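Build the 3D complex.
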Amino acid sequence: MGVRAQRPAVLAPLPTLPGDELQPPRSGGDLCIQACADDLQVAFHATHTLLRLAHGAAVARWSQLGFGRTSSTSRVQSTPRNLMGFKDGTNNLKLEDTAALDRHVWVGASERAGWMRGGTYLVARRIRILFDVWDATDVEAQERAVGRRKLSGAPLGAQDETDPADLHATTTNGPTIPTDAHIRLAAPETNGGIKILRRGYSYFDGADPETGQIDAGLFFISCQRDPQHFVALQRRLGVDDALAKHLSHTGSALFACPPGARRGSFIGASLFG
Amino acid sequence: MGVRAQRPAVLAPLPTLPGDELQPPRSGGDLCIQACADDLQVAFHATHTLLRLAHGAAVARWSQLGFGRTSSTSRVQSTPRNLMGFKDGTNNLKLEDTAALDRHVWVGASERAGWMRGGTYLVARRIRILFDVWDATDVEAQERAVGRRKLSGAPLGAQDETDPADLHATTTNGPTIPTDAHIRLAAPETNGGIKILRRGYSYFDGADPETGQIDAGLFFISCQRDPQHFVALQRRLGVDDALAKHLSHTGSALFACPPGARRGSFIGASLFG
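Done.
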């Protein structure tokens, strides 16, 4: 009877979402390899070796090469910039915050599918940046769309990158952080308390020879204990976010990540044990 | 009348060569941007900015993302490994050897097209490694094909990577470095004295979902004062080299590189001045 009966209720294909212009050859799949290294050569050999071991049992459906991790996941790491030029991930969940990870990232003990307790769900989205319009947008307008200063990363109205964003501050022209600013709509204070762990990469896949437009952007990866947390965020950000018009989601996938392996065992052993 | 009359005689499309399985969308072009950086984000922004500046005058025909420069070009640099796992470029021309560069890389004062004096010709070749067969080849056979030890990079019969290859040494089974070994056929001692400056990168463009085969290899780049030097090498290596059966040339381009710009001028100014 296989493992079908052990499918958690939340492990189901993501619904169609605002911003979706998904390409099937860049979407879906049953198994996921995420190979990360300081040197791309290491990631290549890891992927290559795993694909060889899978020969006859699995075949690579799609892959995405990325660089420059875009979200900081620790307090010692400086926040990298995404290809829009902005620091990205300042308010990301930090691996030091184990209580927050337990609350938002790891599947809890009440999950009926026992093999996923202590695991998480990985959402991957290939998000193309529509540079033609973005590049023609002046820096002040870019900053209003993001809600942060481009150079410092500080929230509008604040001084330093890590200063809290004051969502109540106003100027004579209205809210200091505009109502459609990305950081306002993404903030847990306004989104119902959702936090996800982002760990994405930039990608650059060349230019379209017909249009001259480059195909580059963010290979978004997030981990959360329930894929619906991502769905809820994107239903909000894909519609109201001032950044939405600059982005196109061209690939999408969801994977269940069982907890780490114990010595002598393997990842996913709990599913078959 | 444009600049057609100033075309050097050697600047002509490369002939069909052994190993060619060229894909037109990955080949040719009029202008070349080579953006190199320690961080891919920097190379992205350089390319992106130049493409924007070229808007209306030029459009990107193809691009190739690479990593891990595969040939050392200085004596202080350790030799990187290519995706076959071998140190690649041990005997490459070194930038310290200015006399050798003058002889092999830079176009000399006798060139009729004055704008190319002090310049060079860049050959780019996308060389796919056929991993299915390579991975199934045992290490000793791989070493005989290359002519070097995989771990140390030493020529067969020698101890250290930088030891000279003894092309005359023999064992009871024949030449220590086989007659079809890559380093024997590529050696200036056997190829008529040709030396080129290699400065290639590894590439990894994912896997073919139909066959499962990965598309990865060497984005070969070489500079030489005459493109025919590359042609002569490939006519030899593409036929007799034991590595040839593991390689497929899927892209090809040739570009003239005028000498560097003087302060207040620009690269190629000599062509229009």
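Helices of chain A lie at 40-53, 98-104, 131-135, 139-146, 182-186, 188-191, 227-240, 269-272.
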